[in-house]
Amino acid sequence: MKLILSMFVAAVLLSDVEAGRSLVFPEETANSFVELFPAKELSLNAFTLCLRFATELKGKREVILFAYRTRDFDELNVWREKDGRLSLYLSGPGALFEVPELGPLANHVCLTWESLTGRTTMYVNGRSSASQIFQRGHRVRPGGKIILGQDPDNFLGDFQAEQSFVGEIFGVNMWDYVLPSVAIQLLSTGEDFSDANVLDWATVTLMPTGSAVEYK
Fold it and tell me: Where does the record locate the signal sequence feature (predicted)?
């Protein structure tokens, strides 16, 4: 853990590079999304996924926050559920977390998961949930597509407007290992590090479709 943290701090900040890069989803639609192209295939037995976003969507409405879909499965999805809980799905039933209500200003949400123990933890603005044991022995499979803004019920299609994301996404970073909690707490304060080895918001290629707009 000390090595991971030292690498994390030594990577030092790309906040000047990343500052201002964001994706805006201005309206509820069934055809607007952004595809992300990772630095490596998502063949994962552990990960940390961090999102920074703001949305004014309220009420009993599902909101898709992150979707990774292979041809046959919703391989890795993150949702805000109708009742306000945050959830992670890995090719099947989900792990759901009670969290404080997310206000309309920017929120920082991270998830960590490892296959060996199944330990899964949700972080909201640097504070962690109680861990759950979820999908022990599972592996996230490669060959899919990562999209923001929509939940694909088949391979990059069959979207539902009432599940779409409306708002602004300020950052998506992903590692193929579990970050220590102190590193996630640093990230929540606005520190952006350069060692995200699956998705690095500073460098990842984004392909907007429909009304989604990238700002730099």
Answer: 1-19
What is the rounded CA–CA span in Å between residue 172 and residue 216?
Answer: 14
- The pLDDT value given to residue 205: 97
Residue ranges in the chain whose pLDDT is less than 50 = 5-18
Taking the CB of residue 40, how many other CB atoms lie within 10 A of it? Answer: 12
Secondary structure (3-state) at 21: coil
Q: Is 86 exposed, middle or buried, given 0-12, 13-18 or 19+ CB atoms closer than 10 A? A: buried
What tokens does 146 get?
């990562």
Report pTM. 0.90
Alpha-helical (H) ranges within the chain are 2-11, 15-18, 181-188
Closest CA to 5 of 191, 129, 135: 191
For residue 34, CA distances in Å to 72, 108, 141, 156, 215 come to: 20, 19, 21, 11, 13
Rounded CA separation 4/25 (Å): 34
* Angle separating helix axes 2-11 and 181-188, nearest 10 degrees: 20
pLDDT at 158: 76
- DSSP assignment of 110-152 equals EEEEETTT-EEEEEETTEE---EE-STT--B-SS-EEEES---
